[in-house]
Design a protein that fits this description.
Elements lengths: L23 E9 L2 E6 L5 E5 L6 H11 L23 E9 L6 E9 L4 E5 L2 E3 L1 H10 L10 E2 L4 H5 L3 H12 L3 H39 L1 H143 L7 H62 L5 H10 L12 H4 L1 E2 L2 H10 L2 H4 L2 E3 L2 H11 L6 E3 L15 H5 L4 E2 L4 E2 L2 H11 L5 E2 L2 H5 L1 H5 L5 E3 L3 E7 L6 E7 L12 H78 L4 H99 L4 H8 L5 H16 L8 H60 L4 E13 L2 E13 L6 E2 L7 H14 L8 E5 L7 H16 L5 E6 L12 E5 L7 H7 L9 H8 L1
Parallel strand pairs: 3-22, 3-23, 8-21, 10-11, 14-15, 21-22
Antiparallel strand pairs: 1-2, 1-4, 4-5, 5-6, 6-7, 9-13, 12-14, 15-16, 16-17, 18-19, 19-20
Length: about 1050
């Protein structure tokens, strides 16, 4: 259900200043449409805005709409706000002052606009969003988008074309209760929703009936299918018992295996007990044997220790013998050494004498100092020369590297320019020249075949530094020329035409005319005064042939370039004889008729350049190429000089090396002579030292006496070792006798243990057999247990035993064979029941579920449909009486106004009913019904009434709304057009009379003319809009608005 209706809008009352809240008290425009600056102070009631056509009356209407939050589309003119900025200006603003709730409260709304379609809103001087502005406008119920409140000139015909339904909606918004349009829209939405529900309910009912009828036909077949399914279900139930029977068999087998396992376990326990009784005496005998073995081990250790001692003493004895023999050898050596020493002394004396004689016989040697100095000087000179050459080499290498870096930069720059060429070629390809790359590549590859230079495409040859000049040049020159190739020889032209005809590019041959010389460009003072700064042939660089073709074919030398100042003085520029010029915004062209002196002008906006995207400086390209060639030649020269210098340097280094080797040989000879002299002196000194050391050696007699004493002591130690060995041998014999006795006892114990272990092994075999049998029984029992578990799991997977199922199993056969036979019989009986459609039961049940779903949905939809009907009836009960009361009040005023014109008219509600099944909904629309003094009432339309009658009806309808309107002002633009003088005079009297009534809204009536001798009242304010060459001086006097009120006294005197 909709919310309860809000209270009606409060009736607006006038203040002491005769203004109502929301009235417009001041309008200020700057650079808006036709106005540079405008200040307007409307009156509080009827404002007659008068002025010739084209003077700017409708500009005032547009300013009110846009300044109070309206969109450009509602004016029926331009669709963007930037189009309302005065031509030649970048921005402007609209400032509207509204009267607040009191005289002191003044509301100022400012909207700043610019040519970029941007808006900025200010409320009382502060920047705010449009949302805050809309809230202020809605507070006063200002509806600039409502044609009954705001009717601009370009939408008068749109108001006349309003359908009755649209007129009713606009009337509700303008003069009705605020809830009327809301309730109306809600009724429309509810009616659409109701229609959808009605269609859904009808569709569901038809589907439900079809499904029920189809299921009724299948009842017999479904019964037979269910009988068959019952038999199959019985067979399945018997199949559930079959695994449980098999489980019982496996359970019996498991219990038998478990019993056998218990018997095997008892036998194993008996065998183990007997084996234990046999093993106890064996362990006792083994203990005795261990004691005997311990004694043997101890005796064996004593024997080993005795043996080690004897071996140690034997080794000491032998060692002492070795020492005695060694001492004897030392005595012999001393004696031989003395003989040798005497021989060495005589030999050393002879060697010393020979060395001294050889040293005395060595010849003296003087090194060649003069030759050494001469070689050093020559080497120094060669090294200085090589050093100078190396410095020159480094300088040349540095210069060479610098030139190579510069060459690399030139190559990179040329590559960048080639990339710029590719961008322009791509731009040409995107614009339609699809094979321009192939054409350009062919020309580059075959340049050697041309007689003269070939240029092209022209786009690559032209360089424009200024972006605006690029816009002008591209706009002036035809598109085909940019992809053209220019030759300077007829044979080159024929070759290009022949080979480029498949690439769709034009070829132009330029023949240079030496006799044709163009006048130099010159700017006069008058041109500068109007902002002319250059000519189109002066703003770009290109080869001479390309430039001549462009100038000759497109007259670039007759097209001038101006500024914004030129744009403002375009008509004066034409008087200078300039027929073609460009400004940043427009292109002006004048043409003179061939058949008379008539001159026609054309103004077009300047489009942005799409092809001249990258500036290519042709001079710079040539300069870079020549610089590249120059650097390559210079690098080649430097490289040759560097190689020659390297050869000379290597020659100098070889000469210096040869001299260095010669000097080193002399030095080596000198060092060899000195070395030999030093070696001989060293040899003499060594032989003297050796002789002295031999002479200082000890006397051998004392050493021989010491060695004799040492031999005696060693022989005494050997005798003591022999005594100790004898004692140890006696002790070892006693140990050996005791070891033999204990060993015999141990052998006897070993024989007894082997005999007892033989009996135990026999019993152990019996125990092992019992253990193996027990393991076999355990495996058998485990196998039965696993089979039992598998059988149980299988049975439980087939069916879980429940009390009901257990009772059913009792009624079935008790053996597996009988149960399988019963299952087969039941399945055969079920298969004997035949039917054609195997999915009939699924289809039946699926359709039955759909029937239940549709039944539930049908009940819910009918419930919602009834609820929606109740909502519509309740809403219509609140909306329709209020609307009828409103239309009745409008009709009273409407009829009264027409009676004064001696015409009859009514404003009525007409009901149109749309029937669908048993539901009815009514749509109410408002229509005008008028007639002349004689005749029948007809609905207002273009078929029955004239244009003047329709205009009269429209204005009288708007006047009829005056008393009921809750909006602060109303705007009507040129509604009196098409009326005859009589109707226009009556219409004006009705407007004045309506404006004079208490609490009527402020009204703006815009018209290009008024009839003479009309009746005015104090409620009328005249706002005159004039223009022309003599308006500037009066506008300064009247700009402030201080003199406006002074007109009333003369006007009243005239009327009297």
């Amino acid at each position: 259900m909709a919310d309860e209706p809000k209270p009606k809008r409060p009736k607006i009352s006038r203040g002491d200043d005769d203004y109502m809240p929301g009235n417009i008290t001041r309008i200020e425009l700057c650079n808006f449409m036709t106005f540079n600056k405008l200040t307007c102070k409307p009156g509080s009631r009827l404002n007659l805005v008068i002025g010739p056509n084209g003077s700017g009356k409708s500009s005032l209407v547009c300013a009110i709409a846009l300044g109070l939050g309206g969109e450009p589309q509602l004016l029926g003119r331009a669709t963007s706000v930037g189009a309302y900025v005065k031509r030649g200006e970048e921005s402007g603003y609209i400032k509207i002052c509204l009267r607040g709730e009191s005289k002191e409260e003044l509301i100022t709304i400012t909207r700043k606009i610019d040519t970029r379609n941007k808006s900025e809103w200010l409320f009382n001087g502060k920047v705010v969003g449009k949302k805050e502005i809309n809230e202020v406008i809605q507070r006063f119920n200002i509806q600039v988008n409502n044609l009954t409140q705001f009717l601009p000139q370009d939408r008068v015909c749109e108001f006349a074309k309003l359908t009755p339904v649209q007129l009713l909606e606009e009337t509700e918004k303008a003069v009705g209760d605020p809830q009327l349009p809301v309730q109306h829209r809600t009724l429309i939405m509810k009616s659409q929703e109701l229609k959808k529900f009605e269609r859904a309910v009808a569709s569901n009912k038809g589907s439900l009936d079809q499904l029920k009828a189809h299921n009724a036909e299948l009842e017999k077949d479904v019964k037979r299918v269910r009988q068959r399914e019952d038999l199959l279900a019985k067979a399945e139930s018997m199949k559930k018992k079959l695994p449980w029977l098999k489980y019982d068999i496996k359970k019996a087998e498991y219990l038998e295996a478990k019993k056998q396992e218990e018997d095997a376990k008892l036998k194993l326990d008996d065998a183990a007990k007997a084996l234990k009784e046999l093993r106890e005496p064996i362990e006792k005998q083994k203990g005795e044997k261990a004691k005997q073995e311990a004694k043997l081990k101890k005796l064996n250790g004593l024997l080993d220790s005795n043996m080690k001692k004897r071996m140690q003493l034997s080794e000491n004895y032998n060692h002492l013998g070795v020492l005695v023999q060694g001492t004897y050898n030392e005595v012999d050596d001393l004696r031989r050494h003395e003989e040798s020493r005497q021989q060495r002394i005589s030999k050393a004396k002879e060697d010393l004498a020979a060395a001294e004689a050889e040293l005395a016989n060595l010849p003296p040697y003087e090194p060649p100092k003069h030759k050494m100095e001469q070689l050093s000087a020559q080497i120094m000179e060669l090294e200085e020369s090589a050093k100078e050459m190396r410095y020159q080499k480094r300088e040349k290498e540095t210069h060479l590297n610098r030139n190579k870096v510069t060459l690399t930069q030139c190559i990179d720059r040329l590559r960048e320019m080639e990339n710029a060429n590719n961008k322009r070629l791509q731009a040409l390809k995107n614009s339609g020249a699809e094979k321009i790359f192939e054409a350009y590549q062919w020309v580059q590859e075959h340049r050697s075949q041309f007689n003269k230079e070939v240029y092209g495409p022209v786009l690559l040859e032209v360089n424009v530094a200024n972006r605006f000049h690029a816009d002008y040049l591209e706009g002036h020159v035809a598109y085909y020329i940019w992809k053209a190739f220019i030759t300077q020889d007829s044979e080159d032209r024929d070759l290009l035409v022949k080979n480029l005809r498949f690439f769709d590019v034009p070829v132009i041959n330029h023949v240079r005319d030496e006799s044709c010389r163009r006048d130099p460009f010159h700017i006069t003072e008058e041109m500068r005064k109007f902002g002319i700064s250059s000519r189109l042939d002066q703003v770009f660089e290109a080869p001479h042939a390309v430039k001549e073709v462009l100038i000759g074919q497109f007259g670039l030398d007759n097209s001038y370039i101006g500024s914004k100042e030129t744009d403002e003085k375009a008509d004066l520029v034409f008087k200078l004889g300039i027929m073609d010029f460009w400004t940043p915004e427009n292109h002006y062209r004048w043409s003179r008729s061939r058949y008379g002196s008539h001159v026609s002008g054309n103004v077009e906006s300047v489009d942005r350049s799409r092809l001249l995207l990258c500036n290519l400086d042709v001079k710079e390209i040539e300069s870079v190429k020549s610089r590249k060639v120059e650097l390559e030649e210079k690098i080649s020269t430097i490289d040759a000089n560097l190689r020659a210098l390297q050869t000379a340097l290597r020659r100098k280094e070889d000469e210096a090396a040869e001299l260095q080797r010669e000097r080193e040989e002399i030095v080596n000879i000198t060092q060899s002579k000195k070395k030999k002299w030093r070696e001989m002196e060293h040899l003499v000194n060594q032989r003297r030292i050796k002789l002295k050391s031999i002479e200082r050696e000890d006397d051998p007699d004392a050493a021989i006496a010491k060695l004799t004493d040492k031999v005696k002591e060693l022989k005494i130690q050997r005798f003591q070792c022999v005594i100790d060995i004898k004692n140890l041998l006696t002790e070892a014999v006693a140990y050996r006798r005791s070891f033999a006795e204990n060993n015999l006892c141990s052998i006897e114990l070993e024989a007894k243990i082997k005999e007892m272990e033989s009996d135990a092994k026999q019993q152990e075999k019996v125990a092992v057999q019992a253990s193996l049998y027990l393991d076999h029984r355990k495996n058998a029992m485990e196998n039965c247990r696993q089979q039992l578990s598998v059988a149980k799991k299988h049975a439980e997977s087939v069916a879980v035993i429940t009390p009901e199922l257990k009772q059913a199993f009792l009624e079935m056969p008790a053996t597996v064979e009988d149960l399988e036979a019963a299952i087969q019989d039941t399945i055969s009986q079920a298969n004997s029941i035949l039917f054609l459609n195997h999915n009939i039961l699924e289809e039946y049940e699926s359709r039955q579920r759909k029937i239940e779903e549709l039944t539930n949905k049908q009940e819910m939809d009918e419930k919602e449909l009834n609820g929606l009907l109740d909502e519509i009836n309740a809403l219509k009960g609140r909306w329709l009486p209020t609307l009828r009361n409103l239309v009745t009040r409008i009709n009273v005023t409407f009829s009264r106004n027409f009676k004064k014109w001696l015409l009859q008219a009514r404003c009525v509600l007409v009901q149109f009913f749309w029937h669908y099944l048993c539901y009815v909904f009514a749509i109410f629309v408002v229509s005008f019904i008028i007639t002349r003094q004689t005749g029948q009432l007809q609905v207002l339309s273009a078929h029955h009434q004239s244009g003047g009658e329709r205009s009269v009806s429209t204005i009288l309808y708007l006047v009829s709304l005056q008393d009921l309107t809750n909006c602060p002002f109303r705007v009507v633009d040129e509604i009196n057009q098409g009326m005859d003088p009589i109707n226009e005079r009556k219409m004006f009297q009705q407007l004045v009379r309506a404006a004079s009534q208490l609490n009527t809204p402020q009204c703006f009536l815009l018209t290009p003319k008024l009839l003479p001798n009309l009746e005015y009242s104090d409620a009328c304010s005249i706002l005159t809009v004039m223009n022309g060459p003599w308006i500037e001086q009066p506008s300064k006097v009247w700009s402030g608005g201080d003199s406006w009120g002074s007109l009333r006294i003369p006007m009243e005197e005239n009327r009297c």
